[in-house]
Design a protein that fits this description.
This protein has 185 residues and is of the alpha+beta class. Helix content is 25%, strand content 41%. The chain has helices spanning 2-42, 178-183; strands at residues 44-54, 60-66, 71-77, 84-91, 97-104, 118-122, 125-129, 133-135, 138-140, 148-152, 155-158, 169-177. The strands form two sheets. Strands 3, 4, 5, 6, 7, 8, 10 and 11 form an eight-stranded antiparallel sheet that branches. Strand 4 and strand 5 form a beta hairpin. The protein is elongated and about 105 Å long.
């Protein structure tokens, strides 16, 4: 009988060790899975957003998902020339913004002083196309005195109105991490 009780104790001890190891493996698997998820979620995804931000406070005033090869532009009345100016931009697959076109009715202070890219004259506009000038951040300070609009897809944002007017704003492309994309942070 003594022999059986020794075996029972050894079996019981072995069972406890196995349970403890199983619990440790479970914890290790959970910890490793969590770390892997956190690592992957911080990696940059291919998804990008176009952001309009108030420069001083860094408050995001407008944002929208943007795809490679999409265009956006803004139109405003030039403060000196008092004529309409249109500037068009394109985003590549890496999220780089390129100034692509500039439409002006004249040349002068704050307007192009030399021709670049392909130049056409249509309906009284000097149109410089195919500029491909890289821009990291587009800065502007819209006035409340004249209409200033921003165009993206079918959306029109009036920059000459609050909260955009009379403030230093920045346009830039933000790459989303997988976490931001999945959870729409």
């Amino acid at each position: 009988m003594k022999l059986i009780s020794k075996r029972a104790r050894v079996s019981e001890r072995a069972l406890r060790v196995c349970n403890a190891l199983f619990k440790q493996k479970k914890v290790i698997i959970i910890v490793c899975s969590t770390m892997l998820f956190l690592f992957i979620s911080t990696l940059s995804s291919p998804h990008k957003i176009l952001v309009i931000e108030e420069a001083k406070t860094k408050e995001i005033l407008w944002k929208n998902r943007i795809l490679a090869d999409e265009w956006f532009w803004h139109e405003y009345i030039h403060s000196v020339e008092k004529s309409l100016v249109i500037e068009k931009f394109k985003v590549d697959r890496t999220g780089q913004i390129f100034a692509m076109e500039s439409w002006t009715r004249s040349f002068g202070a704050g307007l192009p002083s030399q021709f670049k890219g392909t130049v056409e004259i249509i309906d009284g506009y000097y149109i410089m196309k195919d500029l491909y000038e890289p821009i990291d951040v587009l800065h502007m300070q819209p006035s409340h005195l004249h209409s200033h609009t921003f165009h993206f897809r079918d959306k029109v944002v009036f920059l000459s109105e609050q909260p955009f007017t009379r403030t230093h704003i920045k346009f830039y492309i933000k790459s989303l991490s997988w976490f931001e994309f999945i959870f729409r942070v």
